[in-house]
Protein 1
Amino acid sequence: MLIYIYPKCSTCKKALKFLEENKIDFISRNIKEEPPTVKELEEYLKISKKDIKKFFNTSGILYRELGLKDKLNTMEYEEILKLLASDGMLVKRP
């Protein structure tokens, strides 16, 4: 299992602790240093069957600074994918 984390995130720390305590094998990837690629995001979206907007970290500073709450409704799908892949701090985690 691959899990994206931000090392300073308390929710990420809890998720890692849970996985370790339950002896679940995983690989962690720092989402800020190595965000998911467009191709990876497409795969995750296909598997999850969720709307792409659900993949955004809506409580994040960058999301608010960019005014994405309103902008996402006017953006094309491909443009949203590229935006998500451009900065891991935009992606919901863990």
Note: The chain has one domain: 2-90.
Protein 2
Amino acid sequence: MARTVMCAKIKEQMEGLDFPPFPGELGKKVFENVSKEAWKQWLGQQTILINEYRLSSLDPKARTFLMEEMQKFLFGDEEIDMPDEFKPV
């Protein structure tokens, strides 16, 4: 039987992640409060941010930016920062 969580993003009881996506308290929070579907949505959003802003995973500032945007996307009602040039397809 699949593990379910009350998804912080979608606001419904949904299938949860199989394991924390990264170590630490934030990884635990995501594991306990984010559904597979919401995580999939975030990964798509993260890809857009990485490509549009030309971010490097080696850059600590880029990693910090992505963590902040992830928290906004998954747990907040705030809009995330999108590049001015980005036009959804």
Note: Strands lie at 4-6, 13-15.
Protein 3
Amino acid sequence: MQLLHVTSELHPFSKTGGLADMVAALGKALAHAGHEVHLVTPLYRGIRARYPELQPANWRFVVPLGSGSVGGEFWRLKVSPRLTIWFVDQPHFFDRAGIYNESQVDYPDNAARYLFFCKAALVLARHLPRPPQIVHVHDWPTGPLPMLLQHARASGAWPQPPKTVLTIHNLAYQGWFPATEWPLANLPAEWFHTNSAEAWGQLNFLKAGLSLADALTTVSPRYAREICTPEFGCGFEGLLLRREYELTGILNGVDYDEWNTSANPFLKHAYDAQHLAGKAANKRELQAEFGLPLRDDVPLFAKISRLTSQKGSDLLLTALEQGLAEGLEQQFVLLGSGDATLQSGFRALAARHPQSVAVKVGFDAALAQRIEAAADFFLMPSRFEPCGLNQLYSLRYGTVPIVRATGGLDDSVVDVRESAERATGIKFHEPTAAALSHALRKAHGLYREPDLLAHFRHNGMKADFSWEKQSREYVELYEQVLHGV
């Protein structure tokens, strides 16, 4: 099967969240399974310098963009015989300090930037030596591409274009723009309607894909059900309910070549499910690194995340404050950034409790690995979570996840109340600091039962969320789309 994935970010070249990890790992797994896979993504600032192995493809192109036209160039990286990454080089649009924004302010020309990117991807799809059978697009920046392909079919410009699949990584991010940006698409005015890209009088990039892709997926089964409800549907629950037979939830996977505890260059002490001494040693290393007391008798909690309301960061801050005020003996390490008020809140908490709380604002991939390996419990109190990846990493690292039962968190973690034999983590249901505090107390109780804690860890480390397994569900979906099932 010939496949083209179109993504606005791709690990390790560009990343703001789990989208980058998912597309990179899925593409790798599909290629390993024997499919011909192409990935296309913008050539953002710094990529060429950091990855000198990129080669110019000697392929220049020009596409219409509103009343004018914009040129670009493809660069290429051949990862393996079946996996090629294409980069769209357009310095005016992509040679910038950020991907979508700077200082949390969106670039005002994002509509032009990502319509150009979609049109570049269409050029690539049209002129590859073996055109793709499936074009798989991801999230709002690539939402217009199914619409462009539909128009190519209707106009006769490409009578039999590829089938399209849109993956919704987070429905809350949609790409809203004024209707005055519609001419940038260079499509007839009559294509701007409620069964296409129009939503409440505005241009909505994601809506175009939700309406016109041949199939829709989410990154977990539960999230596919949740977005068909008013609570999680972000105004599009009606559209999604109408398309529920084309909507599939497929849980994200993990690239265990990168996320493993036995052959990991970022970890000083290797370990596995049968030999956990290395995990205890990694805990002491991290305690020393963050200036925390070297204690094996208290649980070490961790969070690696954007600091946002969606991620429940405010709930966690309140719960930690309450636990420390009550004298709970515990340690907590945070790696993340986001809302300025939340950043200040966590820093202030660490300043008041330097023996118990340590905070690093920012992101560091190597440190993230060390935290996962060192922590006893990983906290994900999300108000909603399409999939989540850190709970999957935590399971493999023997770090018991504490999660709110929503989206992919509910799909991937087994609470003891669901199965004592298969338990891997702790779930709570209400998005409140009180419910999270109760879950933290459960964790303290689990930590005081070493045999039971080892049982949870062993179950988590043996769970299989490999992309080799999860990618087979995408192949089945592609086959259904191609055969009109």
Note: The two ends are 17 Å apart (CA to CA).
Protein 4
Amino acid sequence: MFRSSFLLFAILVISGNFLFAQKGMGKLYRIDRYKSIYLPLGKISFADKLVEYKVGLPAPIQKYRDSVQCLHEPNYKNYQTPNFISLGCGGSLTVEFTDNGFMNLPGDDLYLFEVGPSQEPAKVEISQNGIDWVYAGEIAGGKSSIDLSKAEIDDETVFYFLRITDLKDLCKSKSAGADIDAIGAINSVIKLTIDADVLFDVAKYDLKETAKLSIDSLIKFIKKVDKATILIQGHTDSDGDETSNMTLSENRCISVKDRLMEIFGTSSFYEFKIKAYGESKPRYPNDSEENKQQNRRVEITVLPPKDYYESLNQH
């Protein structure tokens, strides 16, 4: 994940069932001889770190146990080539997305490239932190996509971890259990969060001169999408009264918005929106100076444009 003193984590939110114009990031991946699936962020859409592999019993033969084969872009060729991982009967696999996350947006949110001559059913769980897990759904037969809304998962949380567990349906082959080539996020997200103390003086909303450089450094992420809604959200700590904090966070959002519009101009390709939260959504309890600093923040989320949602409603 992207990290620095002012950039806490980065996610770019793009959704994948509508192919709106982009600058070469999106990519089609073949599912079978006749079908492909489109992932808007291309190669960075995939899980890229192995957390845990628990082989089931009976276990697959050794050549199908190379756990790193489930990472990055899919590269399945045929059943005899072991560039996928078999879970074994009842086995599980836990992976992490480190340069992106995923969340519940319109349409399917995840796609698991389950391969091989048999397509074994498996349970899918997701987590923000790798500790607390939420049931996301199942893959079975030829359907390997997951729509998080069907599991009643909220549309604000960003997830970074995924666990898949074989459901013991087919346990007799030499690659027993589900066979996984790759795990991709259709609704891949990159969220930009900046420490407000980097941007503003205490209780002020005019950008520091040095803050402009911090905002400018984020432009390369936004420009990866040709058309988007850019949502700017402002948060404060609990010092001061609630009304003043709401006004302060709103004015800070406007300052960041004005800077972005100064860079992008009045292009019709970007729509800017602001949302002030004041002290209402702290990341941590406001019981220490360190926690208060973490709560004073501005979040920039690049979302699909209005016509993206309109296109989904037409299908």
Note: Residues 41-188 form a domain with the Jelly Rolls fold (CATH 2.60.120.260).
